[in-house]
Design brief:
- By secondary structure, the protein is of the alpha+beta class.
- It has one domain: 2-Layer Sandwich (50s Ribosomal Protein L5, Chain: A).
- It has helices at 19-30, 62-75, 78-87, 104-108, 130-149; strands at residues 3-14, 38-45, 51-59, 89-91, 95-103, 119-127.
- Strands 2-3-1-6-5-4 form a six-stranded antiparallel sheet.
């Protein structure tokens, strides 16, 4: 049975950004399980010598990881999910990784949209067959959609 072992999030906070607002964007992505995540940060120097803080957030609770990943997938269009599964997945012998990039500004507003420009980077570590995991999550999204329509 495939499962999600870990979610790793990484986000940059530039000198012109409020760290608390960037953290709010991350918390909006994580939802109710945000307090189960561990956060670390490191301040580096940008290209022009300006400070850039890199925040790394790890979520190790499998149930919480599934909840967050399902929320992300449910918020994406069918086309975006197809792109994620086909273009942003790396399969390995014992599982794989999915690479999600969400728009930081949209996440701050409580919406999840894919974006490659200054994103919240998420790596989903999968243990087991990635295709089976895809099937399971797509079925869960369909079921949720059917419940919402009735």
């Amino acid at each position: 049975m495939p499962r999600i072992e870990k979610l790793s999030l990484q986000v940059l906070c530039h000198a012109t950004e409020d760290q608390n607002k960037v953290l709010k964007a991350v918390r909006n992505v994580l939802g109710d399980v945000a307090d189960k995540a561990s956060i670390s940060s490191e301040t580096l120097k940008g290209h022009y010598g300006d400070p850039v803080t890199i925040m790394r957030i790890y979520l190790l609770d499998e149930k919480a990881c599934e909840e967050v990943f399902l929320r992300i997938l449910s918020s994406l269009s069918g086309f975006e999910r197809e792109e994620l599964w086909s273009e942003r997945t790396k399969k390995g012998k014992h599982g794989g990784k999915l690479y999600v990039r969400l728009d930081k500004q949209e996440a701050f507003l409580g919406r999840m949209r894919q974006s490659d420009k200054d994103p919240i980077r998420i790596v989903v570590d999968v243990r087991g067959n990635v295709d089976a995991l895809r099937k399971e999550f797509e079925e869960r999204i369909q079921e949720a959609g059917a419940k919402g329509a009735s």
